[in-house]
């Protein structure tokens, strides 16, 4: 059978691997149980998690079994990797609630039925740990001197590293050990910032069980301009449609840098690589058409076909016709030919007429109704010239809304060049 490692490498999902040849042979010879961890500190995953999610999906398509471990126990400690300060601690109740929502989101990409994938909360074993026994049985295998050489800890020592966080690597390594013992899990996968933790877990299993297991990391993705992938003016690009609407999700992908299109098609769609690679030299109208296909396929994966079609129709109505050549990425299900927008479904927010009758500041409405992250962010947006009301730029941070701004029951807002929102006045 085909080896999933070839597919992962071709698509760019390979950064570092322990014993690459041995892992390749293992993936060739048997169905491998592997795991990737997800932090349940929020009730939604975001685009930053997609590398892990898509890795799991590809592995499952090739017959391997994913374990999605939701760190209900480790979330109560906090992973210092890539962080400059200590994370906010969550209650057990918050974590349980978030865990179910994350499983629902993961189910759009991988199949949990019939034991084809497993969702595990590491609180199952971490919550029962006896501290003295843990130090004796697990802690003795870890060298503090070695841990302090890892970049994660070296960087945090400059700003302050709590003893609580210092234990994180031990707990994650213990996760790998428990999954190996319970499910014969032989592979941990994660972002490249997890490399040290993955190595520590593999080493712990070697010391305790005398077994060889493997680690694999995928790259941490940034855009061609150096920004973190999935970051927008209003924060993270969430996979929850209530936090980031399908239309805004679509708009993010259709507006990415030309230099990122091929990479993102490889990462965030299931379109065949031979079709994607054939587009490496396209430009102009063809690269714009490729962006439409990327946006459509990415939105369909996260929000479903109906949401993808509605987003495409809305974008076409707002920004004009799009021409999609019939032979471009033929495996895509995006509608072909000349696309004419016929029905606008721009995201809306409802504001009572009584509120606008009091002539509130624009910054107050934007901040209070979630159109921007805060009132302060709305002020900065105006100062930077990025806010428009009915296509008129707002230049005064003290400008107010009034009933005169209402047109056909709504006020049209534009943030930046592409983000459209309608305030529906009740």
- In the CATH scheme, what's the topology name of the largest domain? Rossmann fold
Q: Tally the beta strands.
A: 15
- Helix- and strand-based class? alpha/beta
Distance between the termini: 60 Å
Shape: globular
Low-confidence regions:
79-86
Kindly give the count of domains: 3
Helical amount: 40-55%
Walk me through this protein's architecture.
The protein is of the alpha/beta class and 426 residues long. The protein folds into three domains: 4-218, HUPs (Rossmann fold, 3-Layer(aba) Sandwich); 231-339, Tyrosyl-Transfer RNA Synthetase; 348-425, Structural Genomics Hypothetical 15.5 Kd Protein In mrcA-pckA Intergenic Region, Chain A (Roll). It is built from 19 helices and 15 strands. The chain has helices at residues 4-11, 20-29, 50-61, 92-106, 123-126, 131-137, 144-147, 151-159, 163-166, 168-183, 195-209, 246-254, 261-268, 273-277, 285-303, 305-319, 353-356, 362-368, 375-383, and strands at 16-17, 33-38, 65-70, 118-121, 187-191, 214-218, 231-232, 235-236, 322-324, 337-339, 348-351, 387-389, 392-393, 410-415, 419-425. Strands 1-6-5-2-3-4 form a six-stranded mixed beta sheet, sandwiched between helices. Strand 12 (387-389) and strand 13 (392-393) form a beta hairpin. Helix 12 (246-254) runs antiparallel to helix 15 and helix 18 crosses helix 19 (375-383). The longest helix has 19 residues, at 285-303. The radius of gyration is 24 Å and the shape is globular. It starts with a helix and ends with a strand. Residues 79-86 have low confidence and may be disordered.
């Amino acid at each position: 059978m085909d080896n999933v490692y070839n597919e992962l490498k071709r698509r760019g999902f390979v950064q570092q691997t322990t014993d690459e040849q041995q892992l390749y042979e293992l993936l060739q010879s048997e169905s491998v149980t592997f795991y990737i961890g997800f932090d349940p500190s929020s009730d939604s995953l975001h685009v930053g998690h997609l590398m892990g999610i898509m890795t799991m999906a590809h592995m499952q398509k090739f017959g391997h079994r994913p374990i999605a471990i939701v760190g209900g126990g480790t979330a109560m400690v906090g992973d210092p990797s890539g962080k400059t300060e200590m994370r906010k601690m969550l209650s057990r109740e918050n974590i349980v609630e978030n865990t179910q929502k994350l499983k629902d989101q993961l189910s759009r990409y991988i199949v949990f039925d019939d034991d084809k994938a497993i969702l595990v909360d590491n609180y199952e074993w971490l919550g029962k740990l006896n501290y003295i026994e843990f130090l004796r049985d697990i802690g003795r295998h870890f060298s503090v001197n070695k841990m302090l050489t890892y970049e994660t800890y070296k960087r945090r020592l400059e700003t302050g590293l709590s003893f609580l966080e210092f234990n994180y690597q031990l707990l994650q390594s213990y996760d790998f050990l428990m999954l190996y013992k319970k499910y014969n899990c032989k592979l941990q996968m994660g972002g490249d910032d997890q490399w040290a933790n993955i190595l520590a877990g593999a080493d712990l299993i070697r010391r305790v069980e005398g077994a060889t297991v493997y680690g694999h990391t995928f790259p941490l993705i940034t855009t061609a301009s150096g920004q973190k992938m999935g970051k927008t003016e209003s924060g993270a690009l969430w996979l929850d449609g209530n936090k980031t609407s399908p239309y805004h999700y679509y708009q993010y992908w259709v507006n990415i840098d030309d230099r990122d299109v091929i990479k993102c098609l490889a990462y965030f769609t299931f379109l065949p690589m031979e079709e994607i690679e054939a587009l490496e030299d396209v430009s102009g109208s063809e690269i714009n058409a490729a962006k439409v296909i990327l946006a459509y396929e990415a939105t369909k994966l996260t929000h479903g076909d109906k949401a993808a079609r509605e987003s495409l129709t809305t974008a076409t109505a707002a920004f004009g016709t799009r021409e999609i050549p019939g032979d471009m990425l033929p495996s895509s299900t995006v509608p072909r030919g000349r696309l004419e927008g016929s029905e606008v479904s721009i995201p809306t927010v409802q504001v009572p007429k009584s509120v606008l009758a009091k002539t509130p500041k624009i910054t107050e409405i934007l901040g209070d109704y979630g159109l921007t992250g805060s009132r302060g962010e709305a002020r900065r947006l105006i100062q930077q010239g990025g806010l428009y009301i009915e296509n008129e730029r707002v230049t005064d941070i003290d400008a107010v809304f009034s009933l005169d701004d209402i047109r056909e029951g709504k006020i049209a807002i534009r943030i930046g060049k592409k983000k459209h929102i309608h305030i529906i006045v009740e």
